[in-house]
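Input chain follows. Return structure tokens only.
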Amino acid sequence: MLKVYTVVGCLVLIATGSCKIRESKSPALVEINIEKNVKNVKPLTICDYQGEISYIPLKDHSIPLKVAAISDFSEDRILVSDRQSCLLYNSKGNKIASIGKRGKGPGEYYVIVNMRFGPDNRIYLQNDRFILVYDQDGQYLYQFKPDVNPEVSDRGGIMCSWAPFNDSLFIGQVSNDSGTEKYKAVIFNATGKTLFSVPNHIFLNIDRFYTSGFNSHADIYNLRGNIFFKERLNDTVFMVNRHYGFEPVYHFNLGKYGLPKVVRESVTMLNEKIMDYIGIEYVMESQQLLFLSCNFGNHYPAKRPEPIIDKEFNIVLTHYPGRMLGIYNKSSQELLFAEPEKTDNSLTNCGLKNDFDGGINFYPRKIVNDSTLAMWVDAYKLKEHVASKEFKNSTPKYPAKKIELEKLANSLSDNDNPVLVLMTLTTN
């Protein structure tokens, strides 16, 4: 398991070159013991958590989205991208504008790495190393390059994970691709200039410089006005205080299931042995609950009765997809994992069983606000589910909602854009 450092960071003010240590009283650090709860697996439903499900179909199809790969939400708008196009919708799913287009000219992009609503209601869209800025109507304004490694002019990785910090600043992760990066995060303004840097305390003797989703992903989210930060391969969630210091609030104890440092330092070993460990892919939080999307790998509790041989990659598949949804209740301090089903149906084999309207299982992908989480489903898949015997024979808690879902699915065509599925926690 990676060593956890609970030091409130020394913040480097790049603009002046000075280093000012600002310590504050850290909040109580909560340990969430995953090792002891790996087998605490139970059937969990949406109604177990007083959840209410609603659907928002994206109604304009002039630009078809292959998949809803990334999204963001404001109070009344929705931003959706399949990494090749970016569309802006209102809260009812009506299209407002297309944001930029593919190309090499001003305001154009060839790949969308990340995107967010930011200060002044503007839209910030990352194209490789540059962030393109658009107004609230989708008109291109300017672009800038974040100063990822302000003290190293000949090197600077792609900052894939970043989010608004306040009304004028952003916070972004510095990907530790070399294993020896000086900083783990930076605070920068809307021109890309780094104003504060947060020191890195986890150093690795990596056998070669490499960039991967393991290194370059961090969850950065806002809960009740506080910013939280967790890197994928770090076992700690930090809260960023008003002095830009990182204060640890949650520590995930993976024990023997945690990825050893020696494996992380070898690209070859990481690729070969990653399935032997449990990884936390991303974290989401409401006022009362903490949602953990975990990859159980070889520890996945649902096994195939007959293994499948993948001839293309020469591997034997003995497990169904290894995603497990963990839910930690802050009040009871109980961690439960939603029991998966032995099926390849991605709509019903993991996550919260839909006893609300008989629809697909809910597996959260994005935070909308303090009490609402979101996921997406392809229109044709939703139609297939509603047409299935499983749906027709279901007896959800709200039969009228089942009828509404059936009407919605029947109104869709197979080629429609994905449908947004929201779960609102009514007793949060």
